[in-house]
Model the fold of this input.
Amino acid sequence: MSRFTEKVAVVSGAAQGIGAATAHRLAEEGATVAVLDLSEDRAQATVDSIIAGGGAACAYACDVADFDTVDSVFERIVTDFGALHILVNNAGVTRDNLFFKMPKEDWDTVLAVNLTSAFNCAQVAQRYMTSQRYGKIVSLSSRSALGNRGQANYAAAKAGIQGLTATLAIELGPFNVNVNAVAPGYIATAMTAATAERTGSSAEEHQRLAAERTPLRRVGTPEEVASVVAFLASDDASYVSGQTLYINGGAR
Done:
């Protein structure tokens, strides 16, 4: 498939997990991918893998929670590749704790990395997208947006992504910019493995228990999320905007 030939895509938090899988998927379908992570070294591993597979990618160090850094890095990307067509807001962290024990700094960190970063990246990206009257923005929400014990900060941020998505779709739609979100359920990643460890469980046991609660009786993979992100970033989804699509194996 070559849905993204001559398209330039930016994927944040793309050193591992869903971000890396998404960068790979877009590159496999022809995109030139700007792989963003906190350090260029972390991002480079994804880039090396993409290039080894015949794709085109470049690593950029970017603290997406800092607006001025995002502004500067995106300007470099457009200078390097001539355009910016696709933005995937994937960067995220967790700092889980029960609400009454949650330090203010953990609230601030999770909101900054998971929600403010999406504002920063989308606001900078839309300058290029609206001027060319074409763009696709896909942001990562989560099933936790519906509420999840021990994740007041993460749930609030991911619910915010859904509100931001719906609003940007209204405001940017007249400029032919589609804005959508995906909300994964339990996906087997380093982040969910770390959650298992914090709760005193192994990743395998944590996944087994999650699978038992899921109608499809298994957990998801980063590649399965990446395939849905790729659909929303493609012209196959040209009349889809303002939506949040849950990827959770049928869980309710």
Q: What stands out?
A: The first strand starts at residue 8 and ends at 11. The CA atoms of residues 232 and 252 lie 23 Å apart. The radius of gyration is 17 Å. Strands lie at 8-11, 32-37, 56-61, 86-89, 135-140, 177-184, 244-247.
